[in-house]
């Protein structure tokens, strides 16, 4: 059993920001960062576009950024949280600059600022087209200099340890459910171990792998959300899955698709259908820079009308040198598959990109489970509402990691003053289990899950599709639980189990929402309801 003062699950921008701050505050205390892959394999790493922040008050304002966020969120944003993130954002961005992150600058030394869908001003700071990778690099460098932070790589968190594991009945109605730590599957020793912690932060990222095609890396399997739900914590607004309108279309590609950042359209890229027509003006006055939910539905509509699997993004009118300067990664990727952006249009189609819902938190990042915080994409803070405004996610992660740190610091100091209670935590019970005889039982179920979610619970939904999805998920859950009870654990089985839980939560939320709002569009309820509510499960 490991013992730590502060436990961080996940090594993206949210987890590392919190770890660095808490380690600086308590230099004699231990901070453990657990990741199931390498330290930098996170959703943060794949964020291309940038971070939205108001740091040019001569041309922008907090009020404009707040208004843009509220409009994108389609009536479901928590206005107080939006104000917190927008107004505290500049200080957090300056911190990561101080830690070494480099954003592109003009010749006069001012920052280059991009514009993306839903933004009324140029306010997106970026590093070429690999902003997230640059921010992740700077954070890992800063964390590695901190002597009291330890990385535990290739370790898969299995469950949150609560009173349930001490023999008590824990339900959704149980007051003061407490987190004592986690069970982890150590991939190097092939054993399940206990990590006991005083305070725990979940920064486990997104769940895009639930769908057949996603911009998310293979690690984005919704583990944190699924574990909190099983521990009887509160989950919110899971039906709001943002599909990025422009993932690079490559025939036969499943899993992670290459992202064509929205900043390309911000710089003047034009979406065209199979006839070569610019179609976005038919759907929204903001054309190609409408919010993502509108653009994704428009592309979906054009694809269905023509029976094609993609539309086109036209960049042929761009200055080649400027395109390469801003988007070198995209230029090289397109060239590698035979697309010269000066001569050819880029085939694009929507792909699952971001989960606006997740572990329900308050304005300090506290979940409904005591001593457990959540930040980043796995959390539902109230910022995004029914649809995330482009490039608000990195900002939210940094602001809420800081707020988790502030509250955690205070909470930890209170705990130190209390009489210490050391309780025995039970070892993992694997009695009666054996190695699964056929991996096909896991891999085929995963394919079925992704097929069901993509075909029935995608950009456009209806009640019949949702009912079919739920029936199929019920069967997948039953089969997988039987396999889980009988088998020794493996990363593949744990991820499948978590993804089925997340799929269930997405479908359940979508079924309860009898309206179309933001990222949730149901053809049986095409209008918005007058009752504006969050779906809490």
What's this model, at a glance?
This protein is an alpha/beta fold and 537 residues long.
The description of the largest β-sheet is:
7 strands, mixed
Total domain count: 3
Percent of residues in beta strands: 15-25%
CATH topology group of the largest domain: FAD/NAD(P)-binding domain
Q: Whole-number radius of gyration?
A: 23 Å
How far the N terminus sits from the C terminus, by CA atoms, comes to 32 Å
Number of strands: 21
CATH class category label of the largest domain: Alpha Beta
Structural class: alpha/beta
Shape verdict: globular
Rounded average pLDDT:
93
- What is the CATH architecture descriptor of the largest domain? 3-Layer(bba) Sandwich
In terms of quaternary structure, the protein is single chain
Helix proportion:
25-40%
What's the number of helices?
A: 13
CATH superfamily of the largest domain: FAD/NAD(P)-binding domain
Which consecutive residue ranges, at least 5 long each, have pLDDT under 50?
none
Give your account of this protein's structure:
This protein is an alpha/beta fold and 537 residues long. The chain has three domains: 2-239 and 356-417, 3-Layer(bba) Sandwich (FAD/NAD(P)-binding domain), CATH 3.50.50.60; 246-351, Flavocytochrome C3, Chain A, domain 1 (Alpha-Beta Complex); 440-522, Fumarate reductase/succinate dehydrogenase flavoprotein-like, C-terminal domain (Methane Monooxygenase Hydroxylase, Chain G, domain 1). It has 13 helices and 21 strands. Strands 1, 2, 6, 7, 8, 9 and 18 form a seven-stranded mixed sheet that branches. A four-stranded antiparallel sheet has the order 12-16-15-14, with helices on one face. Strands 3-5-4 form a three-stranded antiparallel sheet. Strand 8 (181-186) and strand 9 form a beta hairpin. Helix 1 runs parallel beside helix 10 (393-417). The chain is globular, with a radius of gyration of 23 Å. 52% of the residues are buried.
